[in-house]
Structure formats: C-alpha cells, structure tokens
Design brief:
Shape: elongated
Number of helices: 13
Distance between the termini: 199 Å
CATH architecture of the domain at 152-303: 2-Layer Sandwich
Oligomer: single chain
Length: about 525
C-alpha cells in the first residue's frame, strides 16, 4: 500500500522537474528577443528625446523671431517707433523682419514730418491768434477813440478826451496834443497831461533840429524813441532829468494836411515799441479828422454867430426904419393929404354952382386924395401896427388877418390856447411879421375859402399856426427855381424864427393848401421886453 502511495508523488516530482526544465529552456530561448526589445526601446526613447530636442531647438529658432516680429508690430501699432527691429536671419523670417524695419523707419519719418508740420501749424496759429488779438485790441482802441471824439464837436473836449484815452491805451505817463498854426506853422499846446508846465514840455520837444514834433510834421511820419538815453542831441540831456525814458510823436493829419502832433512819453524805457506805432498812427488819423471837424464846426459856429448878429441887426434896423417911415408918413404925408381933403371940401363949398366942370375936377381930386390917404394909413399900419405896441400880439394878428383876408373874400377864424401874455418886444415883432407874411401869401396866392390861425401860449414856448384850404404850391419847384426872388418870404420866416431859437415849418402840396407852423421858446426871452 505504501509503495503504491509514493509513486504518484514521484510522478509529480518528475513532472515538476520536467516543467522547470522546459521553462528554463523557454526563458533561455526568449532572453535574446527581450534584450533586443529592451535595446530597441532604449534607442527609441533616445531617438524621441533627440528628435524632441532637435524639434524644440528648430521651433525656437523659427517661433522666437516670429514672436519678436509680433511684439515689434504691436509696438509699431501702439506708436512706439523708436526701437529698431534687429534682423539676424537671411531666410523668409529675416526678409519679413527687414520689411517691418523699413516700414518702421518710414512711419517714424512720416510721424516726425507730421509732428514738424503740426508744430509749424501750431506756431502759425499761435502767431495768427496773437496777430488777431493785437488787431482786435487795436480795433477796440480805435473804436474807443472814435466813440470818444464823436461825442462832441468842441475842440477842447475832443483833445482832452482823446489824449486821456491814448495815455490809457498806451499805458504812458505823460502826453500832449500840439496844434500847428496855419500861418507860421508853429506849434502851440492844445492839451497836456503829466507835464507840470510848458517848460516841461520843452524838454520833450527840444528846439531846433532836435524837435521831434517838428520832424514828425515835416516828414509826415511817426517817430519812436525807445530809449531817450541813447537818443542824440538835447533830448539826451534834458529828458532823463524829467524822468522820461521813452516817447513817441505821431502827426495829426486830415486831408493830407498837418494839423499838429500827439506826443506820448513814458518813464520806463521800451514801454513804447514799434508795434505800438501803427496803432498810434491810426489814432493820429482819427483824432486828426475829429480835430479838423471841430475846427470847421467852430469856424462855422463863429460865422453863424456873426451872420445871426448881422441878421438881427438888419432886422432891428428894418423895424426901426419901418417905425421911422410910419411915423413920418403919419406925421407928414398923411397930415398933408388930410389937409388937402379939408381944403378941397372948402373949395367945393365956396365954388359957384355954375362951375360944374371945376366941381367935377375937384370931386375927382377929392376921390383920389381920399384913396391915397386910405392906402397911406394902411401902409402905416402895415409898417408898424399900433395894436402890436398897445394891445399885444393876439390883437395885432387878429386885426391884420381880419382886415387883409376879408378884403380878399376869405373867412378867417382865430383860436387862442393857453394863458395869453405879453412877450418880449423882439419876439412879438418876429411872430407878427411871420404871421403877416403868411397871411399876405394866403391873400395873394392861395385862392382859399377858409383860413385858420392858432396862437398857443405855454409856460415854455409860444406857437403860431396859419393854415388854409387853398391851391397850395410845389415846395420842391420853389426850392429849385432859378428865380431867386421866389421863396424869399418863406426864408424870411425861417430866419426870424431861428434868430429867437425857434423853428418854422412850412408844408404845402398842390391842391391841398398850405400850413405854416412856428414855435419859439419863451423862457430865455422872459424879462427882455
């Protein structure tokens, strides 16, 4: 039983040994392929590592320049054109890099040129703006001067206001306006500021050839002294003593005729500069025209005053002569005619009834003498109505209008407004003569049916209106008529009103009647009767 039991174990051991031997043979058989596989794996991994390293180095050599080009293009796009693009390759990437570098150079040059243009444009704009500002200031100054000189026609007022404005504009310390004499050409002080006396001004206008003002007038040009200390002649010795360091002289001109100069002085050197001279020259022209206008206005006013004085004397003489003639006619000629009529009546009474022819002659003589006496009395009243002296303006106008217009078959109405008062004799005479002329014109020329007269008294004026419904006349035709006698009556009415500071207005149209209106202020004439 025991022998049978160990036999399978032996079999198992044999099998085990056989398997081990077989496995050993198999391992020995597979060892070479495994070694080959391991070697191939090692070489494969090495090859991959080498290939990867080669690929990394190759990629780095291609990608970095492209990345550098990308960064450079970004900087160029951002406007950073100062950094150059460095080119180290000769392949396509190098060609692209060189193209980018050329583009950067051109863009940088273009930008620099644009910046230069912009700076030049900015400088031009700045200069133009500065010029416009200067011209605006000059124009404002000229407008200010024009407004100043246009506010008056009085020479003294114009010179004072102009000099004050010029000194303010130029920021100067002293100045003067000197006027040239039309006869000898000498200069006389019109107005001055900042100069204690004419002797102080003498230092500014040194005598002889050094006189700046004389040079300015002779040359017709503005003269600038930016630094008196460097100016030759007497100015160097005298002006610093007065404290003046710079000055300018500008001629005043009108119609190419020298009228004088404006002199401006400052205690600071170079306070007055060449750019100021153009403005001063323009101011000189403006002030020159204003001075000429003021002179002409003054001359015209003087002539008008002389004319008014002479006209007033002529009218006064006329009135005195009217009075004298009226008095002589009343005292002599009218008395002679009245005596003649009495004697004719006496002759008729004592003449025999049979002297028929002689009676007829006396009758005709008496009729003629009566008519002559009537006309003479009317003439006396026309020359100087007693009602004007005795009863005043209203009564005189009413009497004259009624007498003159009713004779012509016209209806007259007189209206008086306000509180009647006696006026100064000259005013009553002037108003009566104006009314007399208007009434005579209506009676002679109007062919009117109705005539209205209105006298109005106020506290400050008296007005007279004479209006008719007649045929009227063409005022333009009268004004343009070659017959100088036409319109003299209208002119006389205007002149009489103007002599008393009033105004006469005449309105008329053909077929629409005529209206004469006069208004005279009374305040300044009160108490002159």
């Amino acid at each position: 039983m025991t022998k049978n039991y160990k036999r399978p174990e032996l079999i198992l051991m044999c099998v085990q040994q056989t398997c081990d031997a077989a496995e050993q043979e198999q391992d020995q058989a597979l060892a070479v392929p495994r070694d080959l596989q391991r070697t191939a794996l090692i070489f494969g991994i090495g090859a991959v590592v080498v290939a990867s390293a080669a690929a990394w180095f190759h990629a780095r050599g291609v990608v970095k320049p492209i990345r550098d080009l990308t960064d450079a293009s970004g900087r160029i796009a951002a406007g950073a054109l100062d950094d150059p693009i460095i080119v180290t390759r000769d392949d396509e990437v190098g060609t692209l890099a060189r193209s980018f570098e050329a583009m950067r150079v051109r863009l940088k040059a273009s930008r620099e040129q644009q910046q230069r243009w912009e700076k030049e444009l900015e400088e031009r704009v700045r200069q133009r703006t500065k010029e416009l500002e200067r011209r605006n200031r000059e124009q404002a100054a000229l407008n200010s001067i024009a407004a100043t000189v246009s506010g008056s026609l009085e020479l003294e007022t114009i010179m004072s206001a102009s000099l004050d404005r010029v000194l303010d504009i130029m920021q100067a310390d002293a100045g003067s306006i000197l006027l040239a004499d039309d006869h000898d050409g000498g200069l006389s002080t019109g107005v001055q500021r900042g100069l204690a006396s004419d002797s102080d001004q003498g230092c500014l206008t040194a005598p002889g050839n050094d006189c700046l003002c004389g040079q300015a007038i002779r040359k017709g040009e503005a003269i600038l002294v930016e630094d008196v200390g460097r100016y030759p002649g007497q100015l160097q010795a005298t002006c610093p003593a007065q404290g003046f360091a710079s000055m300018a002289v500008v001629p005043l001109r009108a119609k190419d005729r020298p009228l004088g100069v404006i002199l401006v002085a400052s205690r600071r050197p170079h306070q007055l500069s060449p750019p100021d001279m153009e403005l001063l020259a323009a101011i000189g022209n403006t002030v020159g025209v204003a001075v000429e206008n003021a002179r002409l206005h003054g001359e015209l006013r003087e002539k008008e005053e002389v004319r008014t004085h002479l006209l007033n004397r002529v009218i006064s003489a006329q009135e005195e002569e009217r009075k004298r003639i009226a008095r002589e006619l009343h005292d002599e000629s009218a008395q002679v005619l009245a005596t003649l009529l009495v004697e004719i009546g006496t002759a008729e009474e004592i003449m025999p009834a049979t002297a028929k022819r002689a009676r007829d002659i006396l009758s005709r003589v008496k009729t003629g003498a009566t008519r002559a006496l009537t006309e003479m009395r009317q003439m006396i009243l026309d020359l100087r109505p007693s009602a004007l002296d005795d009863l005043g303006l209203v009564a005189a106008v009413q009497w004259y209008a009624k007498t003159r217009l009713e004779q012509a078959g016209m209806r007259m109405r007189l209206k008086v407004a306000g509180s009647q008062q006696r006026l100064p004799a000259a005013m009553e005479t002037a108003l009566f003569r104006i009314a007399q002329e208007a009434i005579n014109n209506v009676a002679k020329h109007a062919g009117a049916s109705n005539v209205g007269i209105r006298l109005e008294f106020t506290g400050t004026s008296v007005s007279l209106v004479v209006e008719d419904d007649g045929q009227g006349f063409d005022m333009k035709a009268v004004a343009e008529s070659k017959d100088k006698s036409r319109g003299l009556g209208l002119l006389g009415m205007r002149e009489r009103a103007a002599l008393l500071g009033g105004k006469a207005t005449i309105e008329s149209q053909s077929g629409r009647g005529t209206r004469v209106a006069v208004e005279i202020p009374v305040e300044e004439h009160n108490g002159q009767r």
